[in-house]
Structures are given as C-alpha cells and as structure tokens.
Amino acid sequence: MQRRTLGPFDVSAIGFGCMSLSHGYGPGPDEDSAIRLLHQALDAGHTLLDTAALYGFGQNESLLGQAVMHRRDEFVLTSKCGIFRNEAGTREINGRPEVLRKTCEDSLRRLNTDTIDLYYLHRWDKQVPIEESVGALGDLVRAGKVRALGLSEVSAKTLQRAHAEHPISAVQSEYSLWTREPEIAVLQACKDIGAAFVAFSPLARGFLPGQLNNPRQLAESDLRRSMPRFSEQHYPANLALLREYHRIARQAECSMAQLALAWLLAKADHIIPIPGTSNADHMIENSQSAEVELSQETMERLGELINQHTVKGARYNDATLQEVDTETF
C-alpha cells in the first residue's frame, strides 16, 4: 500500500478505523472475530489503527490492548480524549486539563501500552479555551505519554489557535463525497501548517458502497437512525444518486467503496481515509483502493454527482451539530 505522512509518522495511505468493532453501528462482532480482523488488517498492510476512549466506553481500547499490542512496532496507534463515560455512566464532553490527563492514563492502561502515538482531542469543549485543553495535551507529549497531537471536528480558526499553543499533527473530521464541509477551510488550513487530514466515515457511513437500501433494517442502537440523511424523508432521494455512481464505478473498474476512497486519496496527498468495518472481505477491498487511479474526468463527474447541493439532509441531528466546531455551508 502507498504511504502518507501523519505528523512525524509514515503510515499506510488508508488507515483502519476500529470504532465499528465496539460502537455505533449496532451489535459488533464477537471478541474472537474482532481480534482476528485486527490481525488481518495489519497483515493486509494497514499501519494506522484508530480508536478512542468513547468507543464502547473504553471497550474498543481494551480490545486493541488485548489483541495487537504484541505487534506494537507494526502500526501507528491513535486514540482520542475529551468524550468519555463519566461516573454517572453517561457520555460527557469535557476538555478540562485534569480530565484529559485522567482519560489519557485510563487509555494507556486499557491499551496496554506506554505511549499513544497520536492523541486527538475528540471534541472541543466550548466551555474550556482550546489553548487550555491543548496546553494540557502538550504536557502529555513532554511527559512521553503521547508523541503527537491532533484535533477532531474543529474549524480552521480553532485549529490555528490550537497550533499556536502546541504543534498539531492532524485533524480528523468526517469527509466523503456526501460530506464536503472540510473543503470550506480546514483542508487548506491543515496543508498550511503541515498537518494531515484524517477522513473518518469516508464511505458515508455505509451509504457509498451501495449495500444499504433500507435504513429501517438498521439495529435500534445504530447511530444512523438519528441522522437526517438516513431518514425516510431524505434517504430515497439520496439513494437515487447511487444509480449513476454505480455506473461510474463500473467504468473505473473498481467497487463502489473503492471509488469513494480513491476519490479522497486523489483530492490531496495529505488526506488519509480511515474506513472501518467488521467484515474481512470489505477490509481487504478497502485496502486495495490505493491502487485505483481516477481520471480528471471521473473526479469531476463524481464531484458534480454527489455534493452538498445534491445530498438531502444534514449529517447530524440538531443536538449533535451543536457539539462540533466545523464550518458549514
């Protein structure tokens, strides 16, 4: 697999997002299957594994700690703080320095490692100045517990403020053909400071591979049930976009998932997609996307077909949109 730069690290151009093994999309795989998949991902050439304290409220980190830490020198490990399960057992966004320090210690213990390579502030707690939260994370770097820092779901302005406090190596936000907000400012802001842009949900949360025909079949616990784009009001119109998209994939001689990832890789060389899956065949398929070359004509057709004007519905519900700091159209 081709390589890309992630802060001080050299990683596979496509990383592996571990969230779906424990969180977000209904019941995940059993533990043995999840462990086997993580090893298959490393064997397939993925050298970037992405997790967070939030995923499964720590279960995802514990899974990695059990499964692959004996292969620690084969991959770059990224995790996130700032969203976690509090003592009351509920999800909380909290960027206070003492909380971030404790979250890091808890993550290191669960991950069974001494150092996290890249540590993201998962959400900016708007009650705490970004400089204060990033300053605390900088202390973790100086203490050797973390090697580099990142931010998630932030605007270009917030990124610039944070980078003035401590070097930021990456921004992780949602980016795909159907979520284009990073193109407003953050992609360029990352390039300006030499940071990578790590694209989560690069397959549009399972939409672009073309296998989700009816969102009503999703598990009750699946987070997509709360997303307007997957609602009965909007999904039929979005689904109609896939007829031409499928035609383009056939002409490019790749799968629909590979087309989405190849489009991202071709947009800029500082973009690193991190698709997640619990299916080994899909993981292999995704890993081969770096071999797909798209013509300028194909790039233009895709951009005109699926974009902020043609996709119906917001990417998050109103409550979740209030939690993020990203620019909007």
Overview of the structural elements:
- It comes from Marinobacterium aestuarii.
- This is Aldo/keto reductase.
- Residues 13-305 form the NADP-dependent oxidoreductase domain.
- One of its GO terms (cellular component) is cytoplasm.
- Keywords: Oxidoreductase.
- With 329 residues, the chain is an alpha/beta fold.
- It has one domain: Alpha-Beta Barrel (TIM Barrel).
- 36% of the residues lie in helices and 16% in strands.
- The chain contains twelve helices and twelve strands.
- It has helices at residues 31-43, 59-67, 97-111, 130-142, 156-165, 186-193, 235-240, 242-252, 256-267, 280-287, 296-305, 318-321, and strands spanning 3-6, 9-12, 16-17, 48-50, 76-81, 83-85, 91-93, 116-121, 146-152, 170-174, 196-200, 271-273.
- An eight-stranded parallel β-sheet has the order 3-4-5-8-9-10-11-12. Strands 1-2 form a two-stranded antiparallel sheet.
- The chain is globular.
